[in-house]
């Protein structure tokens, strides 16, 4: 009978293991390791993400029950204490570097002008509690972290991530983000900083952002609206000379204010440095920001990054990086399987069939019954 890999084995085969091994060597992540190598650490974390296991005890028990098939994947069921130590001590840059290597590999065959590239920027809060979470203290009794993400809505995947304590402002993290000259950046009020906007403008980036209610537009001039536009008004003018009355505004170029009304009746002021596009195009650009909110909801509800197997800063960084790696692997599996039912349904199918011996294109097919041995045949068909 022809051997068939488990679904988990086929998912792991999509990883760029050569790039991962190089990162392990560069970071010396396996020096002094006796029982849980970086490869085994990664496979255990991916098993947890794809199976839905959230606790160290749960991961150990689930992997132990499948140890026979996990052996062919090079995976082992880690002891809880060993697993916890690896999450706390192993360099998180091994895993975040793998995520970046996978993105670079995915983008290699993609040729697209930066003028057509859209980048959504936002962050999401992650609640922490218990011993080890002191690094993320938000108040006397509340601990939390933030995942800062740049998201590509056209490719439906993140292109950058960083993790900070929850008390770090979004704009502080944004100033450390890589900027792609010529791309379009969409963000909300958390990134309200004239100096940062000026930096994006100098790099030839197009902006679509929220405009605070109390920020005046100086020397405004009304622009005509195109027929059929849902915008309420379109004006061009200049930003105030100072921000918060104490910082000189380096963005002295003409900007644009577009007022729109949302489906819930809220009035929004949008800002852009694009003076040529239609008001409707700018409004539609900002509306796409909802895609990153959907991505955060998917990561929290589907890949369950709200529950952490470790609370230290290193453990949280590792788990978020591995969750994003799992997301990229599932997206790749979705393309291979050509499943049009949606990402959430694919995650459910993978979770239900993770250790079954099925191909990626047959996740919906019932598993064939195991062949009967001679004793079972005798029980089924007794001799007369």
Which short descriptors sum up this protein?
alpha+beta; single chain; 384 residues; elongated
Description:
Helix content is 39%, strand content 17%. The protein has 14 helices and 11 strands. The chain has a 9-stranded mixed beta sheet, sandwiched between helices. It has a two-stranded antiparallel ribbon with strand order 8-9. A hairpin with a 3-residue loop joins strand 8 (242-243) and strand 9. Helix 2 packs antiparallel against helix 7 (93-107) and helix 6 (80-89) crosses helix 12. The chain is elongated.
Return Rg in Å.
25 Å
Q: Helical amount among residues, as a percent range? A: 25-40%
Q: Detail the poorly predicted runs.
A: none
Structural class: alpha+beta
Which quaternary structure do these chains form? Answer: single chain
Largest sheet: 9 strands, mixed
Q: Quote the beta fraction.
A: 15-25%
DSSP summary: helix tally: 14
The arrangement of helices and strands along the chain is: HHHHHHHEEEHEHEEEEEEEHHHHH
Which shape, going by the Cα principal axes?
elongated
- Secondary structure: number of strands: 11
* Mean pLDDT over the residues: 89
Question: How do the strands and helices of this protein lay out in sequence?
Answer:
Layout: H1 7-12, H2 17-27, H3 38-51, H4 56-65, H5 67-70, H6 80-89, H7 93-107, E1 118-128, E2 143-152, E3 157-165, H8 170-174, E4 184-187, H9 194-202, E5 206-210, E6 218-222, E7 233-238, E8 242-243, E9 247-248, E10 255-261, E11 267-272, H10 279-287, H11 290-301, H12 313-337, H13 343-353, H14 374-380
Parallel strand pairs: 1-4, 4-5
Antiparallel strand pairs: 1-2, 2-3, 5-11, 6-7, 7-10, 8-9, 10-11
Helix pairs in contact: 2-7, 3-12, 6-12, 7-12
């Amino acid at each position: 009978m022809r051997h068939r890999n488990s679904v988990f084995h086929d998912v792991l085969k999509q990883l760029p293991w050569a790039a991962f091994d190089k990162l392990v060597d560069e970071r010396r992540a396996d020096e002094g390791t006796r029982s849980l190598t970086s490869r085994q650490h990664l496979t255990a974390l991916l098993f947890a993400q794809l199976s839905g296991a959230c606790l160290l005890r749960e991961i150990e028990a689930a992997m132990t029950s499948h140890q026979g098939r996990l052996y062919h994947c090079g995976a082992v069921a880690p002891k809880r204490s060993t697993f916890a130590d690896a999450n706390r001590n192993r360099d998180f840059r091994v895993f975040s570097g793998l995520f970046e290597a996978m993105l670079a590999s995915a983008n290699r065959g993609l040729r697209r002008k930066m003028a057509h590239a859209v980048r959504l920027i936002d962050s999401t809060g992650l609640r922490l509690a218990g011993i080890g979470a002191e690094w993320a203290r938000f108040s006397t009794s509340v601990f939390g972290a933030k995942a800062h993400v740049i998201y590509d809505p056209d490719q439906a995947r993140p292109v950058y991530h960083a993790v900070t304590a929850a008390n770090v402002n979004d704009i502080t993290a944004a100033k450390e983000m890589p900027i792609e000259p010529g791309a379009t950046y969409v963000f909300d009020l958390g990134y309200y900083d004239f100096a940062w906007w000026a930096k994006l403008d100098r790099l030839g980036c197009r902006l679509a952002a929220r405009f605070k209610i109390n920020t005046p537009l100086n020397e405004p001039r009304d622009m005509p609206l195109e027929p059929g536009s849902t915008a309420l008004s379109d004006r061009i003018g200049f930003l105030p000379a100072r921000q918060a009355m104490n910082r000189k505004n380096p963005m002295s170029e003409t900007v644009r204010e577009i007022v729109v009304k949302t489906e819930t009746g809220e009035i929004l002021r949008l800002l852009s440095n694009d003076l040529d596009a239609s008001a409707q195009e700018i409004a539609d650009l900002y509306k796409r920001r909802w895609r990153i909110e959907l991505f955060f909801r998917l990561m929290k509800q589907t890949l369950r990054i709200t529950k952490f197997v470790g609370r230290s800063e290193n453990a949280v960084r590792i788990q978020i990086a591995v969750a994003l790696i799992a997301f990229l692997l599932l997206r790749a599996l979705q393309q291979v399987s050509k499943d049009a039912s949606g990402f959430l349904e694919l995650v459910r199918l993978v979770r239900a069939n993770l250790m079954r011996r099925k191909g990626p294109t047959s996740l919906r097919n019932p598993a064939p019954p195991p062949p009967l041995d001679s004793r079972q045949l005798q029980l089924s068909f007794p001799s007369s």
